[in-house]
Amino acid sequence: MSKIDEVRAQMVAAMKNKDKERKDTLSMLLAALKNRAIDKREDLTEAEENEVIKKEIKQTQETMDLAPADREDIREECAKRLAVLKEFAPAEMSEEEIRAQISAVLSDLGIGEPTAKDKGKIMKELMPRVKGRADGALVNRLVGEALK
């Protein structure tokens, strides 16, 4: 079952339960997924669906972060939206899993004692392995720790 079908089924359930906030969030996500499929002119792959979901999460998080401190209504709405969107997001890699990938890349490249000069090579090899499953800033921080 594609994410579009899954989101649509959840949206129908939310409408039946008269959960307007959940329905609105799912409707927004469904529209984003459909628009991406229309732009591509074919069905989305799972990776592309996950990319759309992550983009929606990121935009909602930014809205929440940029909302003025006295606008609790906006913050609450964003928090509820994030909770719904995260149900459909792919599982993130843990720090231990990322460190294991870093170790694998170091052994593949034959780098015993990595230095700052090696960071570009390491990141070039590592990022395709963790794309969509790990936060880039976290990966960058962990690679930096491995270089020390």
From TrEMBL:
PANTHER family: ALTERED INHERITANCE OF MITOCHONDRIA PROTEIN 41, MITOCHONDRIAL (PTHR28055:SF1). This is GatB/YqeY domain-containing protein. The keyword Acyltransferase does not apply. Keywords: Coiled coil. Residues 4-50 form a coiled coil. Gene3D superfamilies: 1.10.10.410, Uncharacterised protein YqeY/AIM41 PF09424, N-terminal domain (1.10.1510.10). GO terms for molecular function: carbon-nitrogen ligase activity, with glutamine as amido-N-donor. InterPro entries: Asn/Gln_tRNA_amidoTrase-B-like, GatB_Yqey_C_2, YqeY/Aim41, YqeY/Aim41_N.
